[in-house]
Design goal:
Chain B: Keywords: Cell membrane, Electron transport, Heme, Iron, Membrane, Metal-binding, Transmembrane, Transmembrane helix, Transport. Chain B: It comes from Paraconexibacter algicola. Chain B: InterPro entries: Cyt-d_oxidase_su2. The complex is a heterodimer of chains A (about 475) and B (about 350). Chain A is mainly alpha-helical and about 475 residues long. Chain A has one domain. In chain A, a hairpin with a 4-residue loop joins strand 1 and strand 2. Chain A is about 70% helix and about 5% strand. Chain A is globular. In chain A, about 55% of the residues are buried. With about 350 residues, chain B is mainly alpha-helical. Chain B has one domain: Formate dehydrogenase/DMSO reductase fold. Helices cover about 75% and strands about 5% of the residues of chain B. In chain B, helix 4 packs antiparallel against helix 13. In chain B, about 55% of the residues are buried. Chains A and B meet through helix 1, helix 2, helix 3, strand 2 and helix 14 of A and helix 3, helix 4, helix 5, helix 6 and helix 13 of B.
Chain lengths: ~475, ~350
């Protein structure tokens, strides 16, 4: 492997890993903020215990998200210095704004939330967790705006003298419609991710130890089911319009997602195809297709025209010169299907759980097993979605402006190999530690006898799980 | 002053903010076992930085992001050039975050002991390496004609840069010891006080050696560089008397000034370059590294709006948690905020 391949693997591994954690943080911080709001309003102790239990899981996850986020910020300069030189004038701004407007907010107020239980008036303390949620959302928005610029470079122009992309309008960069869709899609998916965690862990407790803290986990289960169902459905709705938008601005990505070679007025939606994806759809060994559905999804009309790979490749060659402008088809095709498939399964499971559990009934043991598996469904869907977004853009790193192969740092392959091995081993070790800690805390359940906040003079003894 | 100058100063301010704030929490981490003999004492020491270290670290992320936006060429050359050194720093920072966050999430002495050891190593390592990195930026490193880094990782370690590493390490330890003396009670405070006294003379020697070497090697000795050095020197000399007089707040403020003075020395010496080349290519000037005026204008507006807000709520955090941290089991000093009406619905 050369330096380019190693740099791509490193970016892929570190980014996907980071993105396993980010949606959990965004979603769980929102749900924990809602739980604490509920406690503040009703004074019901159950919600205080929910806040603290799910809050502890949030913190365990948050820590690893922050830690891996630091690598994200620096590796543009480290492994992708030619990219950084080319895009810095445009891409750096949302990144810097993310730091100033979002990171400071998240980390400062998270510290206040963890340590402020006994120091802050209840109303202000409640405000701190909402500030954390706001921070995570701002952070997501600015980073998605930066990424959206790579998908659809607006608000900028390439200066022929300096040979780099330069900012023409920050407003255009920050209101890029690709960014708005990506943010909506990410937020709803994040809530579904957090919902699935509540759902899976609560269902496990309900099935495994039905008498243990029954009220606590019944309420948590209901929160999990409702959040998951609503958020997963919302993700699909946003995703539908996002897909239509991408068909307009990144037609090659969407054609690749369908392995659609030939442009068609009545394009069918491929549900499942097996084959090499090499030249033409005829070579697929097996393909289940719903007639005309792709045309409808892409254009809202059953006879809408969808551009195929061959036509787009010809267009790109005319515009950018000879070259291969088709992303890796198998990766694009499958990541798209895995994203949608696991999302649908998750929504179906949440709907089934709500139906089975209506009027206080208990769903069977199979449901608990499915629910635990469901914790992983959004993680798989999120990963697949992110891989689809990034790999569907290849060979471009900035669509139409800069190729990935021209973006890498002029470093020896051994240097990149060293860091790739280092980060991979470190991340693997951290994954083991995080998973063990997360499961241990999840299985233990909430503290049996919570002390009301403010009941003792010893502030540090109040919340053992939340302090150092 | 042009916008490029403004951003050169702002980058210096962000680094100063980072080194001052994370400086004391690196110091607390490095000295962890020297001030805390028992797990409970170490927990007490860590509770002084608990609510703030994460916010402190964001200064680094903003310094990095602002460099990317305002000086892309600098960002690209610096971070790809110092690739392996930076990888080590990043690994240390990651381990440190995990250690601080996870040490108390599981009730097992061995778990805690391992994370505590990790805190020491992962605090001391970046404390040294940031000094090495800055000494390289100012003292010069091999740059190719196209502005990219042309050396290897061993080129980064020279007597001058190692002294730079010792400078940041000793300054941060002194800074951290004074922070602990200011923020704790009981045996931890006593040990931190004794450490601060003992570390003073070696720190002064190392810092003085580094400052003199930097000024002696500088192509142009600027008044501001001399001013920064003088401020750092005066502050360091005044630390010990203040400390002996029991003025812990003042002593901590003085180590803060010393770090700020060192940053002024480094950036004033660097100006108007952002990377000094030891050959074969030319130095990278801030003009050549900068973004367009439009981007710098946007960034200036954002910084002017956001920075006061950030300073306000970060300052508020320090205010909320200003009470001394007591040893476990002796209760907690209450803050006036506790006297405010506490609406805890349904709770005692």
């Amino acid at each position: 492997m050369d330096a380019l391949d190693l740099a791509r693997w490193q970016f892929g591994i570190t980014t996907v890993y980071h993105f396993l954690l980010v949606p959990i943080t965004i979603g769980l911080s929102g749900l924990v903020a809602l739980m604490q709001t509920r406690w503040y309003r009703t004074g019901d102790e159950r919600y205080l215990r929910m806040t603290r239990f799910w809050g502890t899981l949030l913190l365990i996850n948050f820590a690893l998200g922050v830690a891996t986020g630091i690598v994200q910020e620096f590796q543009f300069g480290m492994a992708w210095s030619e990219y950084s030189r080319f895009v810095g004038d445009v891409f750096g701004a949302p990144l810097a704004i993310e730091g100033l407007a979002a990171f400071f907010l998240e980390s400062t107020f998270l510290g206040l939330w963890i340590f402020g239980w006994d120091r802050l008036p209840a109303r202000i303390h409640l405000g701190t967790i909402w500030a954390v949620f706001l921070g995570t959302n701002l952070s997501a928005y600015f980073i998605l705006a930066a990424n959206a610029w790579m998908q659809r470079p607006v608000g900028s122009a390439v200066n022929p003298v300096s040979g780099r992309a330069e900012l023409t309008s920050i407003v255009d960069v920050l209101t890029n419609r690709t960014a708005l869709f990506a943010y909506g899609h990410t937020l709803t998916a994040s809530l579904a991710t957090a919902g699935a965690i509540l759902l899976g862990i609560s269902a496990w407790h309900r099935a495994r130890r039905p008498d243990h803290d029954a009220a606590f986990f019944r309420t948590s289960l209901t929160w999990g089911l409702r959040t998951t169902l609503v958020a997963a459905l919302a993700t699909m709705v946003v995703g539908h319009f996002f897909g239509q938008w991408m068909t307009r601005v990144q037609p090659m990505k969407m054609a690749a997602a369908e392995a659609l070679y030939e442009s068609s007025d009545r394009a069918g939606l491929s549900l499942l195809a097996i084959g090499g994806f090499e030249k033409s759809p005829e070579e697929l060994a097996f393909n289940i297709e719903v007639p005309r559905l792709l045309s409808f999804m892409a254009t809202n009309s059953f006879s809408g025209r969808v551009q195929g790979i061959d036509e787009l490749q010809a267009q790109y060659e005319q515009r950018y010169g000879p070259g291969d402008y088709v992303p890796v088809l198998a990766a694009t095709y499958w990541s798209f299907r895995i994203m949608i498939g696991t999302g649908v399964l998750l929504a179906a499971l949440a709907a089934a759980g709500l139906w089975l559990g209506r009027r206080g009934r208990e769903p069977g043991r199979w449901f608990a097993r499915a629910a635990i598996a469901a914790i992983f469904a959004p993680l798989i869907a999120n990963t697949a979605g992110w891989m689809f977004t990034e790999m569907g853009r290849q060979p471009w790193i900035v669509q139409g402006l800069l190729r990935t192969q021209d973006a890498v740092s002029p470093l020896p392959a051994t240097t990149l190999l060293a860091s790739l091995v280092t980060f991979t081993l470190l991340y693997a070790a951290l994954a083991v530690i995080e998973l063990r800690l997360f499961t241990r805390v999840a299985r233990r359940g909430p503290d049996p006898a919570p002390q009301p906040v403010g009941a003792t003079a010893d502030g540090e003894a109040l919340l053992p799980a939340l302090v150092y | 002053m042009s916008l490029v100058d403004v951003w050169f100063v702002l980058i210096a301010v962000l680094w100063a903010g980072y080194l001052i704030l994370e400086g004391f929490d690196f110091g607390v981490g490095t000295l962890l076992h020297l001030v805390g003999r028992t797990p409970a004492e170490r927990a007490q020491a860590l509770r002084t930085i608990g609510p703030v270290w994460d916010g402190n670290e964001v200064w680094l992320l903003v310094a990095g992001g602002a460099t990317f936006a305002a000086f892309p060429e600098w960002y690209a050359t610096l971070f790809s050039g110092y690739y392996l050194a930076l990888t080590v720093i990043l690994v240390a920072l990651i381990v440190r975050i995990m250690a601080l966050e996870y040490r108390n999430k599981h009730d097992d002495p061995a778990w805690r002991r391992r994370w505590d050891a990790a805190i020491v190593v992962s605090s001391a390592l970046p404390a040294v390496l940031w000094g090495v990195a800055f000494a390289n930026i100012v003292g010069g490193s091999p740059l190719a004609a196209d502005g990219s880094f042309a050396g290897n990782v061993l080129d980064l370690l020279r007597p001058y840069t190692v002294l730079g590493g010792l400078t940041t390490l000793s300054l941060f330890c002194l800074h951290g010891a004074h922070f602990l003396a200011l923020r704790t009670e009981g045996p931890v405070r006593d040990r931190a006080t004794a450490l601060a006294t003992r570390m003073w003379a070696p720190t002064v020697l190392v810092v003085a050696g580094f400052a003199v070497w930097t000024l002696a090697d500088a192509q142009v000795v600027r008044p501001l560089a001399v001013g920064g050095t003088a401020a750092a020197a005066l502050a360091l000399l005044a630390v010990l008397p203040a400390h002996r007089a029991g003025r812990e707040g003042r002593a901590f403020a003085l180590t803060t000034v010393a770090i700020a003075g060192a940053v002024v020395l480094l950036f004033a010496t660097l100006f108007p370059d952002v990377m000094v080349s030891s050959g074969p290519g030319p130095d990278l000037t801030m003009q050549a590294a900068a973004s367009t005026d439009r981007t710098l204008t946007v960034m200036t507006v954002v910084a002017a709006v956001m920075t006061p807000v950030v300073l306000l709520y970060q300052g508020w955090t320090y205010w909320v948690f200003r009470a001394r941290v007591r040893p476990e089991g002796t209760g907690d000093v209450r803050t006036p905020l506790d006297l405010l009406d506490r609406r805890a619905g349904g709770v005692a």
